[in-house]
Design a protein that fits this description.
Strand content: 15-25%
Oligomer: single chain
Distance between the termini: 7 Å
Structural class: alpha+beta
Radius of gyration: 17 Å
Low-confidence stretches: none
Number of helices: 2
Number of strands: 3
Order of helices and strands: EEEHH
């Protein structure tokens, strides 16, 4: 994990196409702006997890996979979401 310090209005670049800008901060809340190409999805982690779970559920239903196997696969998928 890379840890960076930024001040108000400063930008972090990820590659050549993704910018993360510090827009404001108020106590413990920080607002950031993310500029990325349209083909790169950007989500908060909780939304991303919900999307992955929904995709997995749809896959399980389409392929008639048992619920027990589904829960096992889901745990494997979510273990890789946030690497530390």
């Amino acid at each position: 994990m890379l840890i960076l310090s930024r001040k108000f209005q400063e930008v972090i670049m990820i590659g050549d196409q993704i910018q993360i800008k510090i827009l404001s901060f108020d106590g413990r809340d920080i607002r950031i702006g993310i500029t990325a190409p349209r083909n790169i999805p950007v989500h908060r982690l909780e939304i991303y997890e919900r999307i992955r779970s929904d995709h997995l559920k749809n896959f399980v239903q389409r392929n008639h996979i048992s619920k027990r196997f589904f829960f096992f696969i889901r745990q494997l998928c979510f273990l890789s979401v946030v690497p530390f």
